[in-house]
Amino acid sequence: MVLGLDIIIRGTKILNFAHGQFYMLGAYMLLLLFQIMHLDFALSLILAGLTLGLVGAICYMSIFHVVRQRFTVTTTFSYRLLLSAMASVGLMMILQQGTLLLFGTEERGVKTPFPQMIDIFDVRISLMRVIVILAAIIICLLLYFLMYRTTLGKILRAISYDPEAVTLAGINTLWILVFCFALGSALAGIAGGIIAPLFSVTPAMGENVIFLSLLVLLVGGIGSYRGTILGGLLVGLALSFGFQFLGGIAELFVFLLVIAILSFRPGGLLGEAAD
Amino acid sequence: MVKLPTSWKTIHKKLAAAVILIIILAALPLFIENDYIKHLLIMACVGTILGMSFSMLFSTGLISLGAGAFYAVGAYISATLAMNSGISFWLAFPLTIIIASILALGVGAIFVRNGGIAFVIITLLFASAVVIAAGQIEFLGGWGGIIGIPKPTPLGPIQFGSKTPYYYLILIILLLVVLAYYALYTSYIGRAWKAIKLSPNLAGTLGINQYNYRLLAFTIASTTAAAAGSFYAHYFQTVTPGAFSGWLSIYIQLYAVLGGLEFYVMGPAVGSIIMTFIPEYLRIIKEYEPIVTGILLLLVILFFQGGILGTIINAAKSNNRNNGQAIHSIKSWLQKNKNPGAGER
Amino acid sequence: MKRAALILTMVASILASSFMVACSPAATTQPAAATEVKTLNVGCTLPFDNSLGMDTKKALEMIVPAFNAAGGLTVKGQKYNINLIIYDDKYTADGGRAAVERLVNQDKVKFIICQVGSAPIVAGLAVTEPAKVMVLCGGASSKIIDPANKYVFGTATWRTNLAPLFPLLKSAFPNAKTMVNLSPDDETGKALASDNAKIATALGITVLDNVYYPRSTQDFAPFATKIAALKPDIMDYPGAVAGTQFGLQFKALYEAGFKGAHVSPMPPSLTEVLAVAPPQSMEGLISILPSTEIPNPSALATQYKQDWTAKYGSWSTVSLTWIPAFYAFVNAVQKADSIDPEVVSAYLSANGLSWQSPNGSAMLVKRPDFKNDRFCDTCASLDFGIFKSGKYEYLGTVSADDALKANQSAFGGVWK
After folding, report:
1. Of A200, C106, C158, C257, which has the fewest beta carbons less than 10 angstroms from its beta carbon?
2. Is-contact B97 B231, C-beta < 8 A?
C-alpha cells in the first residue's frame, strides 16, 4: 500500500489522496471475485490488482495527465503539486460515494480462505496473517528487483530525478508515468484485497488508511524504497506496542515521535530531503 | 496577483471597488431575513479567512495542510479560557491570538525546515495529532468535546442573540485580516515571499533568508487561522475534535484553489462561498451530493486553471485574440480525448 | 469582453441559483389528501454513509407514509400529515450543525426526531434549544440529558439498559468472577465502561482491566492478545458499534484463545458480524435481542418486519434501533394535543410519556443522578438473548417498569 503511494509520489510527483480509495476498491474487487464469483483466492487477488492498475491508468490519463498538460515551464513546483493533489481529492470524493451507492452502506467481510491457526512458541497466530506477511515480503522483493535490476526500474528512478532528461534520452515519459501510477494503484488494490479477509470491507476503509500511509512514508523518507519498508515496520510496531502499554494516547506519541525524527532528519530516516 | 498600484488612478479604482464591496457586505443582513443563509454567510467568511491563511503560506511556496490544526488550536484555547477562567470572548480572542502565535512560532521553527511534499505531509500529520490530543486529553473535553461555550458578552446595546451581530463581528475580523494581509503583501516582506516562491535559490543570493521569511509567514497564517477558530468556538458554542479532521484542512485549500491562487483575498472568498453554498444547494439530491461536488471540483481544476477568478480575468485579457481560456481548454481536452488510447472517460 | 461577461454571468447565475434554491423549501411537500388536512414538517438528520443512518432512513421512509395513510395526526380536531425532511449530518458535529441550521431556519421545522449520532445531536442543540425546537433523539451521550437543556428528550435506551442486563448475566453465568471491558476510546465508550464497571462490581464481578481502542481500529490482534493473557470469565463491550468492527473483536479474541462469555447491550448486526467472524467466536454472547426476533413478537413488531421485507427485501435488525423516537413523537403530540413544541415539551417534562413501538413499550424517566428532574430519558422493555451454537436463543424480557426499578437501585434517586 505505502510502497504504491511512494512510487506514485516519487515517480509522478502527485500527492494522491485517492490512493486510499484504490485500496478500498481493491478490497471490494476481491469481495466480488472471491466471495461472490467464487474464483480462486490468488487469482482474485491478481485480478483485483490488474483491475486497479487499469483504473489507475484511466484516472491518470483522464485527470492527472490533463492537469499536467496545463503546466508551463514557469509553473512552480508547489503549484503543480497542489493542483494534482486537489484533483485527487475530487477523484476521491467520486470514488468514495460511488462505491457507497454501488455496494450499499452494509459493511462486508471476506471469508478467510485459510482459517487454520498455528502456534509459534506459544503465540497463536492465524495462518491468514502469516500469509499476508509472506505476501508482503514477496511483493517487496519483486519490487526491489524491478526497481534496481531492470531497465524499467532505472528509467523509473531516473524520471523521478529529472523527467526532462529522460525525455531527451528518447524515452516516452508519458507511458512511463502512466505505468508508475498504474503500478502504484495496483499495489494499493492488492494490499486492499489481501487485507480483506483479515479485516472488514467498508466504504470508509480507504479514508482511515491514507493518513497512516502518509505517516509511514514520511518516517522512512519519500523516495527511499528501503526507508518505506523500515518506516512501515517502525510505525506498525510503535503503534501496537504503544496501544498495549499506553492506550489510545499512543497515537499521539507516534505523531510526536515522527515530528521529532523529522526535525533531526528532514528527509526521513533513509531519504534525502525532498523539495 | 496583488500588484502594486501603478498610478493614483488605479488606487482610486481599487479603493472605490473595495468600499462598494464593503457597503454591499455590510448591508446584506438588511435584505436577508433567513437565518440559515446568514449562517452560511458567516461560515463562508470563516472559510475565507482560513483560505487566506493558506494562500499566505502558499505565497512563499509552501503548501500547508495544517491550517485546520491552528483553527482547532484557536478554538480550543478560546473555549478552555472561556470555560475555565470565565473570561469573555472579548478577552479570550486577543489572548488566543497571542498564545497561538507563540505556539505557531515554536512549531513552525521545526516544520519550516522541511520543504515540498514533506512539509505538506508533516502539517497534515500535525493536524491529525491536534485532533487526537484534543480527543485524548480529558481537560480538553475528550472526544465529546466542550459544550456550552458562552456567547460573546453584550457589547453596549448589541446582544449576541441572533445571527446578525455574529455576521458583523466576523465581517470586521475579516476586514482587519484583509487589511493586515494587504499591508504585508505590498510591503518588502510580501515581495520577499514572492521571490522565495519563484526561486528559493535566487532569493537566497539576494540576501533573503528563506527560513526566516517562511517562518514569519507560517506564524502569521497560523495565528489568523487561530483567530478564526476562536470566533468559531464562540459562535458554535460547541467544539468537538471530530470537527477538525484532516479533511477540513484539505477543504480549506480547496477554497483557495477554486477561487484562484493568485488572488490572495478574492480567491479564497469566491472559493469559500462556492464550497459553502453549492453542497448546501445540492442537499436536495441527498446521497449523490459528494459525487456531484467531486465532479464539479475536477472540472474546475481541469478547465479553470488559475481558479475561477483567474479564468475570468484571463478571458477578459485575451478576449481580443478570441481565446477564452476555459473554452479553449475544454475544446483541446475534447480533441485529445478523441485520440485513440487517451483513456475511456 | 464578451467571453469574460459570459463566464461572469455563468458564475453569477450559479451563485444566484444556489442562493435561490437554498432559500426555497427543500423537500417536495406532500399534496394534501383532503382540503382540511394540513402538513406538519418534521426534521431529521442521519448519517448517509453508514448502515445506521441509511437503514433508519429507509425505515422512516416506510413508516411515515404508512402513518399518514392511516389517518395521520389529529390535534385539536385538525388532521395533519407528517412531512419528514431528512438531511445528511455526515455523523459529525459540523455536518449535524449545518443540517439542523437548515431544518430550523430554512424549513422552519418545530420538531426534530430520530437522530442517531451523539456528535451531530449535541452540536445541533446549540441551535434547537434557543429556537425552542423540540428534539426526540437517539445517541448515547449523557450531554443529551444535561439539565441545562429544556427541549430535548433521549428516546434510546443506551443510558438505562445496563442495570437490567447484568443480573441476567449473573444468573446465566453464576460462576463468572472476572471481566474485562473493551471500549472505543471516545467519550461514549469511556462513560459506558465506567457505568458497566460500577454495576458489575456491585454484583461481585471484578473488573480486571478497561481496554480502549481508537475508533477506526480494524486490527484487534494486539488488544486480544493482551486480554487473553488476563484470562477473564466475561468480555464486555461498552459502546461497541454494531457492524463489522464488533465481529473483528470477536474474531481476534477467538483467535487469541479467549473462551469465556461475552456481554453487550448493543445487539450486533448479525449479517455484518458473521461476514467477518466465525459463529463459534460469538458463542456465549448475551445481548439485547431485537424485538422482532423473540418467540412471540408483538403485533407491531411482526407488522413492521413484514412491511420492511415486502418493501426492501432483506431484513435489517439495525433499522429497528432508532425509530422509537417517531412513535414517541406521535404519541407526545397527541397526548399534549398541540403542535406547539413549547407546549409539548412542557407537557412531557412534567408528566412523562408511555408509548408502544415495534421495539416494545417504553416510557420517559427522570434522571436525578444527573440532577435532571424533568422527564428526559427513556426506560424501555428489553428482550435479551444468548448466542448459542450458531444462533440466538431467547433468554427473557424485562418490562419497562422492571428496567426502571433496576436503574433506580443501581444509580439511586426516584426516576418517576
Report:
1. C257
2. no
